Amino acid sequence: MQPTISIPQHWGYPHFALEQRTEQGTILGLYYYPSGTELAEQFDDGWRYVLMLNKNSDEISYLQEDQIQPLTPEELFQQITAEIDFYQQQITSSW
Question: Which of 23, 49, 89, 93 could disulfide-pair with 69, CB 3.0 to 4.6 Å?
Answer without folding.
Answer: 23
